[in-house]
Structure formats: C-alpha cells, structure tokens
Specification:
Radius of gyration of chain A: 20 Å
Helix content of chain B: 40-55%
Strand order of the largest sheet of chain A: 1-2-5-4-3
Strand content of chain B: 5-15%
Structural class of chain A: alpha+beta
Structural class of chain B: alpha+beta
Distance between the termini of chain A: 69 Å
Largest interface: A-B, 49 and 53 residues
Largest sheet of chain A: 5 strands, mixed
Helix content of chain A: 10-25%
Number of helices of chain B: 17
Number of strands of chain B: 8
Strand content of chain A: 15-25%
Distance between the termini of chain B: 22 Å
Oligomer: heterodimer
Number of strands of chain A: 5
Shape of chain B: globular
Largest sheet of chain B: 3 strands, antiparallel
Chain lengths: 173, 417
C-alpha cells in the first residue's frame, strides 16, 4: 500500500473524526484536520510504530482573505525512518482561537508558533511564550495578513510638501 | 504607530528574561544571577544576533535569543512581485549560499507550474549548488576558527573562497547575489571558461582541506575548545528540528539529497558524513568531510555534463532569446508579457525542500491562479537551529557559547528574513 494511503487508513482507525478532507497536488498529500484534533493527530502520527512522523519541519500560516474560514495553518511533518513528507492543514476562523499548540509533541514548535503569531497573528492556544520576535514589541498589526498594506512612501510635491512631511514617522523630540 | 527608539528599550529583569526562553524549555534556577546582553554588535554572534544570557558565575543558566534586527519582510515583499521578479529577494536570505536559496524557491515555482527542467540545467544546478556548499563552509570554517582564536585559518579560507566567487561572477555576473537559476532553467548557459576553472579548483582544493585540517585537527587549543562542548543528543536534535551537518553530527542519517533526491542527485555517488559525538568537534568533522563529498559530486557532474539547451522550450515561462526579438513578432509579445505581467501559476500549494549548506531549506508556496505568489514561506535551517541554542548553550561557559554559535553555523539574513 502506498504510504499516502497508509497514513489515512491508520488515522481513520485511530481518530475517526479527525480528517475533514484529503487534498493531493503535485504528488504531495495534505490532510485537512479538525482544529480541535490537531494535537491528538500529531501525537498519534509521531508515536505510531509504522508511521513515525518524528520530525516537525515547519509550521506556516496562510491568510485566505476573502474566503471563510479566513486563516489556514499548515504543519509539514517528516518521517526520518520512512522518508516521507506529510502536510496537515487546519482551518482557523478566529485568529485568537487558533489550533492547540504542539509544543508537547515537538519542542521546536515553540518558535515556529511564535513566528506564526508575530507575522500572521494566529494564536496557537496553550503556547504561553508567544511574543514579538521579528518586530519591535510595540508594533501594531501582523504584516503578513492580506489587509495589511505593503508600506510605501507618498511622493512629496511642492504643493503638498508640508502636509506629507507632517505624516512621516521621524524620530522627533 | 510608536517607534522603538533607544530610550524606549527597557532593561530586562530576570523574570522577563526567563519568560522569553519559551515553553518548550525548562528553566534552570540559580542562586546568584548576572544578566548579560551579548550582541547585537558582537563579532562572534555572526551577524546582528542578540543573546540575553543569565549567568551564575561564568556558567550560562538561561538563555534567550533576541532577533529581528535584520527583518526586511521578504515574505511580504515577495507577494507583491511576479514569480520571476521575487527571485532576487531569495538571494538576500542566506547570503553565504545564494545558490541554494535560489534553488529552493525556483524548484517550488517549477513544482507549482508542473514543469521539469532539461538534463543540462539540472547538472549545472547541482554543480553550482555544491560549489556554493563549499564556499559557505569556507566562511563557516574561517569565522568559527577566528572565534576560537585561530586567526590564520580565516585568511586561508577566504583566499580559496575568492576563487569560487570569481567562478560565480563568471557564470552569473555577480559575486554573491547571483539570481542565476530561473523558472524553467537558467539565466543562460555557462561560458566556455567555466569547466576548466572548476576543474582547476577540483585539482588544488583537496590539498587545501588537508591544510586546514593540519592547522586545527591536532591543535590542542582547538581540541580543548571543541571536544565535548555543546553536546546535543540525537533525540534532542530531532525533537528540536535540527537538520544538515548539525543533525548529522549527532549521528542521525538524514540528508535531503539522499532521502528525497531532487534534481539528478540520485545519479551521483556520494556518502553522507556522520559523526556520533554530537559536540562542536563532531559538527566540524562533518562539514570538513562534506566538502570532500561535494568535490566528488562536482567532479562526477562535470564528467557526465550533458549537452543541449539549458531552458525548457515553453515561451509562456522562459523569455525568448535576444536574437529572436528582431525578427519575430511573437517573440516580442512573449518578451513583453513575461517582463510586465509575468506568467500565471495554478491554484494550489506546494512545499519544496533542498539541502542547503546549513540544513533543510524549504519553500512553501501558494499560488492563487495569478502571476504573483499568494504566500511564500521559507523554512530556514538557521531559524530552527537558533531555537535549540538555549538547550545546547546552557550549563556551559560563556566562552563555549561562542564555539556553539559558530558550530551550528547560523546566518542572520535567513533567520530574520
């Protein structure tokens, strides 16, 4: 049996409700997982003798605006023993109520979830160390969201020079 | 929006530092504390890295990296550019091996498009990526040795690296920010002088590796500073997401080139160097042996370098050659469309990883059917390695911390992105 199918079969037996949808694209398998089941699924995939997805490669978040649910968080898992990649994906409606943290399964998730929160603003519930990492502590907003504009400089002409100058963020005293 | 200025930066308390260590790591308690801010302008932090260190005497008890000084919003910026134009931003991530960064991103784009490149393009990509592994390891070795007070190794390493940078300049027109791999192939074929230059390098470089080894391997200071320092077990290394030579130094045999062969790595014979001690010295041995393997791959690839085109024959992705623009209206249209609008990629998401000199460098790419990526995310090995630094670095001396940072080989450009 193909390893792609083995994962689905094993997961359906162990956690029947967890898989929402299966998506195949360019030879990669993605399992859409129910948001409240993600930690149990990760724990199972790591500890199962035949699967052994012992390596968390990456966590990243998508902003799917204007779709609903708006956010999606992807987990890239790898099994060093079986040399197989698998992607888990969770849809998130409310960014403050994100998927449960997987820190207890892979400690490296602390930092990967911190990045997800800092840049995309999706809070992984239970990770107490979420803080600003790339951005200053007093930064407003989460830049990777689609409604966050890519910054640009307004052009100053002689007729509106002072008006635009007043809005510029100089370090003034 | 308030800006962070020098007078808004507060001094930390012990509790604040411990809160920054993160939930995955237990806090070590100590009776006497001293807080030390190492960096961001510290020569041995290899860039603008700041380490918040809690000391008990000279022993590091808790440690929290503070990053973001080099954050340039690469991922956000790429969403505003076409697939081809966004490529230049990947050079700036890991500026010591821009070839691997280009490769990871370009292969993700090609995977999303569903195209496969020509055999000659694959072989040249392999050669250049492996040369980039050597040039990156040379910077690592030079700076790592310099941190541990071996000045001369640095000078020798940079001398040989210069030769490689000259080859890059010959091929791509740039010493570092090459952007030479393009969707569908390469910018152009390599010049005639490329093969003799690389062969010359293959001939003289093994003796140079022996020279570096002679300077360090039996050096008592080097051995004392690196052996049994910064030990990480195989289980911890896997749980903390370490990859590349840092993982293989702990005895875990995982190399993306072997396990998930991309390009035509499956055609070449090479070993994956493994060491079992997991200390700074083991990671040093791994990288030194890796340079020999890279040389062997380059030699095999040069020997069987196929002839033929370097770009696929699809004008919707690869721009037409300059000569055609003068006589073909269709070529002008293709050229214009590609450099203004760009090509559109289908809806969907892919993840492509390559073995960069530092470890698994992955690119997650989501297309929405338009000419610009909807989301680009990089899984950079340095970022993940930095997360495990508090684990490796604690309960050692401050001086060992310098050795450890050098041995996991971080580049702040790809951490901060």
């Amino acid at each position: 049996m193909d390893r792609h199918d083995l994962v689905v079969q094993k997961l359906r037996n162990a956690l029947p409700e967890a898989i929402e949808e299966i998506y195949d694209f360019r030879g990669e398998r993605t399992l859409f997982i129910k948001k409240d089941k993600i930690k149990a699924v990760c724990q199972f995939l790591r500890d199962d003798e035949a699967l052994q997805y012992n390596f968390l490669s990456d966590i990243c978040a998508d902003d799917l605006l204007p779709e609903f649910p708006r956010f999606a968080v992807s987990y890239h898992l790898y099994s060093i023993a079986n040399q197989h990649y698998l992607r888990l994906r969770v849809h998130v409606e409310d960014p403050d109520d994100g998927p449960e943290t997987v820190v207890s399964v892979w400690p490296v998730a602390t930092w990967l979830e911190m990045e997800v929160w800092d840049l995309m603003g999706v809070r992984c519930v239970g990770n107490n160390s979420l803080r600003r990492l790339f951005l200053p502590e007093d930064w407003q907003g989460h830049p990777l969201r689609k409604d966050y504009p890519l910054g640009y400089e307004e052009v100053q002409f002689s007729f509106n020079y002072e008006e635009i100058d007043a809005k510029k963020p100089y370090a003034r005293d | 929006m308030t800006l962070t200025t020098s007078d808004t930066i507060q001094e930390l308390t012990v509790e604040q530092l411990r809160a920054k260590v993160g939930t995955g790591m237990e806090i070590v308690d100590a009776e006497e504390h001293m807080l030390l801010s190492m960096g961001p302008q510290h020569p041995s932090t290899h860039g603008v890295l700041r380490l918040l260190v809690e000391l008990d005497g000279e022993t590091v008890v808790n440690l929290a990296p503070d990053i973001g000084f080099l954050h340039t919003g690469v991922e956000k910026n790429m969403e505003a550019k076409t697939y081809t134009k966004a490529l230049v931003m990947t050079d700036r991530l890991d500026y010591l091996s821009p070839w691997s960064n280009n490769l990871g991103y370009i292969m993700a784009v090609e995977k999303l498009l569903g195209v496969d490149v020509t055999p000659r393009a694959k072989a040249l990509r392999v050669i250049l990526s492996e040369l980039s592994r050597i040039s990156s390891h040379l910077v690592w070795l030079g700076t790592h040795a310099l941190d541990l007070a071996a000045m001369s190794v640095f000078l020798y390493c940079f001398r040989e690296r210069e030769y490689l940078l000259d080859i890059y300049e010959m091929v791509g027109g740039q010493r570092m920010m090459v952007s030479y791999f393009r969707p569908g192939g390469l910018w152009r074929d390599v010049p005639e002088e490329f093969e003799p230059a690389v062969r010359q390098f293959l001939d003289f470089f093994p003796a140079k590796i022996a020279d570096y080894d002679a300077l360090l391997k039996n050096n008592p200071i080097w051995n004392q500073r690196t052996r049994e320092v910064g030990v990480i077990s195989a289980e911890d290394a896997v749980a903390w997401g370490m990859t590349g030579p840092s993982l293989r130094g702990s005895g875990v045999n995982w190399d993306v080139r072997k396990a998930q062969p991309y390009l035509n790595y499956a055609d070449y014979e090479f070993d994956v160097p493994l060491e079992t001690e997991g200390d700074v010295y083991a990671r040093y041995r791994c990288r030194m042996r890796e340079m020999h393997e890279s040389l062997s791959i380059v030699r095999q690839a040069l020997d069987k370098l196929p002839k033929g085109p370097v770009n696929i024959d699809d004008r919707k992705i690869v721009p037409p050659p300059r000569a055609e623009l003068g006589r073909s209206m269709e070529a002008v249209i293709h050229h214009f469309k590609l450099w203004t609008e760009g090509f559109s990629a289908p809806e969907g998401f892919v993840y492509q990883c390559v073995e960069s000199p530092r470890g698994e460098y992955g690119c997650y790419l989501r297309g929405d059917g338009g000419p610009k990526p909807a989301r680009v995310h990089f899984r950079t090995p340095s970022y993940v390695h930095l997360a495990s630094l508090p684990l490796i670095g604690r309960m050692g001396f401050v001086a060992d911390l310098v050795a450890i940072i050098g041995s996991v080989d971080i580049v702040l450009g790809e951490i901060d992105r």
